[in-house]
Amino acid sequence: MVSILKKVFSDRVPPGWERVDPVPIMKNPLPDVRLRETARYRITGIGITVRLLIVTAKREIRLMEKDLLRPEITVNPVAISIEKTGLHASESTRA
């Protein structure tokens, strides 16, 4: 999982991964941030889908991976990673 996340965060997605259109998050369960899915990859052979989210703070916030464990955001997660957990207002990070 660490290898997969590193590939996505470093924009080195292997050619065998199928890019799928991002899906809007219908209801954002986190009032202090905006969430936007920018990419989705299906890794054939192992049955994993990787979603890349941009998380933008509406105010100064400390975000943790467990905050994204919401049914509106993910279903049956194997791993969640956030690049930067402490955000100032209007600052963004990838998850």
Structure at a glance:
With 95 residues, this protein is mostly beta strands. It has one helix at 2-9, and strands spanning 18-20, 33-43, 48-57, 61-62, 86-87, 92-94. The protein has one domain.
What does this structure look like?
With 95 residues, this protein is mainly beta. It has one domain. 8% of the residues lie in helices and 33% in strands. It has one helix at 2-9, and strands at residues 18-20, 33-43, 48-57, 61-62, 86-87, 92-94. The strands form two sheets. The protein has a four-stranded antiparallel beta sheet. Strands 4-5 form a two-stranded antiparallel ribbon. Strand 2 (33-43) and strand 3 (48-57) form a beta hairpin. It is globular, with a radius of gyration of 13 Å. The protein starts with a helix and ends with a strand. The relative contact order is 0.22.
How would you summarize the topology of this molecule?
Layout lengths: L1 H8 L8 E3 L12 E11 L4 E10 L3 E2 L23 E2 L4 E3 L1
Antiparallel strand pairs: 1-2, 2-3, 3-6, 4-5
How big is the Rg? 13 Å
Beta-strand residue fraction: 25-35%
Order of helices and strands: HEEEEEE
User: In terms of quaternary structure, what is this?
Assistant: single chain
Name the overall outline.
globular
Alpha-beta classification: mainly beta
Q: How are the strands ordered across the major sheet?
A: 1-2-3-6
- Summarize model confidence as the mean pLDDT: 91
User: Fraction of residues in helices?
Assistant: under 10%
What is the number of beta strands? 6
Number of domains: 1
* Number of helices in the DSSP assignment: 1
Largest sheet: 4 strands, antiparallel
Distance between the termini: 14 Å
Which residues form runs of ≥5 with pLDDT under 50? none
